[in-house]
Amino acid sequence: MRVVVQRVSHASCTIDGQVTGSIQEGFLILVGFAPDDTQTIVDKIIHKIINLRVFEDENGKMNLSMQTIGGAILSISQFTLYANCKKGNRPSFVKAAKPDLAIPLYDYFNQAMQAQGIHVETGVFGADMKIDLCNDGPVTIVLDSEEICK
User: Fold this and answer.
1) How far apart are CA 80 and CA 18, in angstroms?
2) Global pTM?
3) Which residues of 79-106 are buried (b: 16+ CB within 10 A; e: fewer)?
4) Catalytic residue among 33, 78, 109, 122
5) Is 79 an active-site residue?
6) What crossing angle do the helices spanning 39-51 and 99-115 adopt, rounded to 10°?
């Protein structure tokens, strides 16, 4: 599982001219799954995300988590996080999970974060989405289950 976590002052997802998800302060999360990912792996990544201390405290230090500030998440499925560009110029996506595995894991990811009390907005799996955001900082962190779950 790979996620790109961007601290944002606002973010939204639009599909065919309709906004499907919109947040103010929080995280825009791009999330991709590999064929061997499980709910256990998803739970470990969620724990890391909701406890990331990347929001500024009263002294201007990145010391607060999203739960502490009451932030929200805009979650966007992103199989291209598993692009392999080793050969040639056209990426291969063979290391990305197929939809029959990725869709249930994506749904679980979003529901499990909501169960933690986080407000979650989403895009639509597999749709042509337009994402608008203001990356605050900018703060962008890449989390990979191969590093976190070892």
Assistant:
1) 23
2) 0.94
3) bebbeeeeeeeeeeeeebbeeebbeebb
4) 78
5) yes
6) 40
pLDDT in tens, 15-24: 999 999 999 9
20 labelled catalytic: no
Which pair of structure tokens corresponds to residue 36? Answer: 């061997």
Please name the residue that has the structure tokens 């995300």. 49
**Kind and range of the H or E run holding 114:** helix 99-115
User: At residue 50, does pLDDT exceed 80?
Assistant: yes
The pLDDT value given to residue 149: 78
Q: Which residue has the tokens 């999360």?
A: 29
* Residue from 27, 33, 55, 79 carrying the catalytic annotation: 79
Peptide bond into 104 cis (omega under 30): no
Cα 115–chain centre separation: 16
**Token pair belonging to 32:** 């991709």
Annotated catalytic residue within 24, 39, 68, 80: 80
Return the SS3 of 119: strand
